[in-house]
Design a protein that fits this description.
Length: 202
């Protein structure tokens, strides 16, 4: 799952500079996934860190009954980004098939869900060696009690995202100064496979 070349290619596609930190979330666009929570945290972070960039990956993959609500939520997300002054610093990528490339492009992965049955994307971020900040939603605290920074939604969540960003910025500065890309030590391949099996069984 670790594909640094694909990650670097996506960063280049997005216009992310080597000294910038990319913070993102991946998931279906729907209120319970909490992308609005992510954007509020991004707006707070943006004020303190001019080198931060943000990305929202996902689209409205909804049943007919939910589609209208989710599409309205998607429109509100764009309005929220504009009203919080994020402008060109946030990119809405829509649906992507190349999730490994997305995870490898990120410096910090954020799961802002209000509810979450399992959190497969957390496994994918960990498999790419990315730090994860997640809300204490659904099964996430039970499945990832120690490998993920867990917090409540709202202000505590924003603080944890900011802390994780600061750590990534320190690491990135060291990597740039030494002229080499970061390497990941997290090995979660078998865990990721078991997580996908669990999702398929539900």
């Amino acid at each position: 799952f670790q594909d640094r070349a694909a990650g670097e290619a996506l960063r280049a596609e997005l216009g992310v500079e080597p000294d910038q930190v990319l913070v993102g979330t991946v998931g279906r666009i729907t209120p319970w996934k909490g992308q609005d929570v992510f954007l509020r945290a991004a707006a707070r972070l943006a004020g303190d860190w001019p080198q931060a960039r943000f990305v929202v990956v996902g689209d409205c993959i909804s049943s007919t009954a939910e589609r209208e609500k989710d599409e309205a939520f998607r429109a509100r997300l764009r309005d929220l980004a504009d009203s919080r002054g994020l402008g060109a610093r946030v990119t809405f990528l829509g649906h992507r098939e190349d999730v490994p490339a997305v995870m490898n492009a990120l410096d910090v992965f954020v799961l802002p869900s209000r509810q979450e049955p399992f959190g497969l994307v957390v496994l994918e971020a960990m498999a790419a060696g990315r730090p994860v900040v997640a809300t204490r939603a659904g099964g996430v605290p039970e499945i990832f009690p120690s490998r993920v920074i867990l917090t409540q939604s709202g202000a505590p969540f924003q603080e944890k995202v900011s802390l994780s960003f600061e750590r990534s910025q320190t690491s990135l500065t060291s990597e740039v100064e030494n002229g080499r890309p970061g390497t990941a030590n997290i090995r979660t391949g078998s865990f990721l496979k078991s997580g996908r099996s669990r999702m398929a069984a539900t």
